[in-house]
Design brief:
By secondary structure, the protein is an alpha/beta fold. It is built from 14 helices and 12 strands. The longest helix has 16 residues. The two termini are 35 Å apart. 42% of the residues are buried.
Amino acid sequence: MNDEQIKRLKHILNTRQNIVIIPHKNPDGDAMGSTLGLCHFLTKLGHKAKVVVPNDYPDFLKWLPGSEEVIIHELNTKHSTSTIEKADLIFTLDFNALHRAGHSLEKILNNADTRKIMIDHHQQPEDYAEITYSDVTIASTCEMVYNVIENLGKVSKLDASIATCLYTGIMTDTGSFKFSSTSSRTHFIVGKLMESGISHAEIHQNVFDSNSYERLQLLGRALQNLKIIPEYRTAYITLSQSELDEFKFRKGDTEGFVNYGLSIKGIIFAAIFIENEQEQIIKISLRSKGTFSVNAFSRAHFNGGGHNNAAGGRSELSLDSTIEKFISILPEYQKDLAQ
């Protein structure tokens, strides 16, 4: 944050506020960790803070401190709408365009004549917030929340609840600290969080060691469906709705599946295509190594975006037609994929 933003935020938070904190639709570890971490912090400052999420989130994140107080918009629309309408201040975390909150919340946020603050690390942020703290070089939004706390001169307010939430988001968005976005600053912040009394081993177990039998069976099917296109150093996975149903799919079950394709020797571009009959779309996750930008690829072809090495998208074609389109596009990027 720059000095002017810090000054303005300090002024805003100098008086007691009724605050709502919102992550993107289909919230992941960074989204839930940053919103809940910020919520705990603002509550310690004496504000009334609530987290409103667009839709439900994975069970492996529901142990996070404060999760029991989260308001899920799609399950309790009336309560969440009323909460937002009564807010003096809205924080939007881990997304940079209001449509990322989903159609319903996007309309409510657009209609809300309430000052907004964005904290986000994705590329090309929209200009809707009074304060926009955007930095694409930072590995996670949870790191950015720590920076906000530090810039406000309130690191002494850190406790185990705040630190647990922020550590979870940093851990998940850095791939347990193995992604190239992980920096020395990341490790410095993690060290400070560990000093607040967290159990990093327990956090890792809660997130990664809570597989169901059905999820492991679904992973097996995903790996059976894995295809490689060696001339483009590309791998992709497909999962149909019938396959999801066969293995009793629950939200979050496919988290991390795309990385198996990227783990193959020689592969620098990986994708997973997941059919969602309810929304009538194919959900797409993209990952890359090196300089190949999946953010640019997704923005150009699949109505999405994200980071250079991790992005998402969607297709309204059938699963087969989406794969055909994906494969047909690859020759345009042959030079980039030959790096």
